Inverse folding.
């Protein structure tokens, strides 16, 4: 059942997550942007050019579903990314965009985070694709992620950042944490000789027990075995 927030609750939660991202080092300076879908045609989001670690509830911006501000305050120019997700999927009620260091480092190095390595990531996110490079704050960005947000709740932006989608703002934030933790684990694995993906049979078993943890299979579950993100069973 979808929990409907009051605007006051949404403002408080958005400020809390903004500060958490800043304190965890997922953003610095005035980086990052966050949003909550209050209604089918109403978005609450962070303002342009602001330090997300210092926001107050009154600093947030209300826009319509097309990103037009409903006040004198301006939303981030990168709200366009969020709107692609909201227009594409009715189940997405919040979006987080940040620049987690290790995860972004993988895109800078041209190394994929799509391999099936950690059971927790397989069950929650499936694989994590990297969208092609696009110029920040332009229409290139929403165009670059359009196909990915259809089936993925976490997408890396080449040489830029991460975008995570959730049923609420904390869900989106926890997925960002998962992405960065996965990237840090993969970094250590590469230092120790390289990651060893799970076998296809192991991935199938994980997908079959998602419900045990109260999870739905990731939207990209059908790709995990067929797209080569895990090791074929013949090697087991």
């Amino acid at each position: 059942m979808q929990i409907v927030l009051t605007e006051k609750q949404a403002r408080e939660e958005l400020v809390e997550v903004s500060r958490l991202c800043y304190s965890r080092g997922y953003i610095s300076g005035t980086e990052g942007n966050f949003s909550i879908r209050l209604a089918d045609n109403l978005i609450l989001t962070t303002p342009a050019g602001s330090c997300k670690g210092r926001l107050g509830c009154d600093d947030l911006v209300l826009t319509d579903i097309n990103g037009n501000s409903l006040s004198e305050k301006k939303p981030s120019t990168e709200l366009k990314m969020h709107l692609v997700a909201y227009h594409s999927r009715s189940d997405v009620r919040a979006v987080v965009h940040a620049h987690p260091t290790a995860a972004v480092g993988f895109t800078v190095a041209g190394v994929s985070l799509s391999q099936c390595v950690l059971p927790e990531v397989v069950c929650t996110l499936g694989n994590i694709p990297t969208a092609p490079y696009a110029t920040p704050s332009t229409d290139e960005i929403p165009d670059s992620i359009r196909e990915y947000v259809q089936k993925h709740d976490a997408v890396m932006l080449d040489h830029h950042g991460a975008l995570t989608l959730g049923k609420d703002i904390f869900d989106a934030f926890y997925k960002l944490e998962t992405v960065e933790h996965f990237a840090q684990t993969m970094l250590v694995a590469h230092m120790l000789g390289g990651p060893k993906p799970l076998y296809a049979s192991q991935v199938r078993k994980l997908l079959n027990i998602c419900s045990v943890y109260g999870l739905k299979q990731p939207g990209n579950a059908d790709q995990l075995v067929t797209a080569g993100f895990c090791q074929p069973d013949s090697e087991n």
Remarks:
- The chain has a mean pLDDT of 95.
